[in-house]
Amino acid sequence: MYLCDFPDLDLFPILYGALTVSARGGLQKPLLNNTLAALGRLKRGKSAKASSTKRTNRGRVSSGFQKLVDTITGVHVHVLGQQKDTVVRRSACLIARSNSGTAMSCSPAIGLIKKWTHEGVSSAGAMPCLGLLTLDAIRSELAGHDIILVRS
């Protein structure tokens, strides 16, 4: 798994007082992992602005990769924090099998939309969604998918 730049890296220290946060993501096939890592290095070397032509080309490359996509993907988040005078380490790893990887990113959004549909939206504007859903609400959205959660 490779280090990833997830929003959690900025949000966990602010919202939960985490001292350090690392996040990793990866695919089953080494060729795809290495290709994604190389593309990430290329992106870091260029301007963040992209023309619509570049976006279109990336879309074509991305759709070409769909044929090679793994049936197994994963995300791992490790947090180091402090509760009172004790250092606390927590890790969570999601492993998606049977092409269920997209459910990992979609399920929280679907759960939040369902919650807002039933309860209404409590405040307007863009905001982090951390803490707006319970783990059980997210689990219920993941229930129909072949996804394993490992926590420590």
Short description:
This protein has 152 residues and is an alpha+beta fold. 43% of the residues lie in helices and 24% in strands. The protein has one domain.
Give a topology summary.
Elements: E1 2-3, H1 8-16, E2 20-27, H2 30-44, H3 52-65, E3 73-83, E4 86-96, H4 101-119, H5 135-142, E5 147-151
Helix pairs in contact: 4-5
Could you characterize the architecture of this molecule?
This protein is of the alpha+beta class. 43% of the residues lie in helices and 24% in strands. It has one domain (2-28, 70-151). The protein is built from 5 helices and 5 strands. A 5-stranded antiparallel β-sheet has the order 1-2-3-4-5. The protein is globular and about 45 Å long. The mean pLDDT is 77.
Keywords:
152 residues; alpha+beta; 5-stranded antiparallel β-sheet; 5 strands
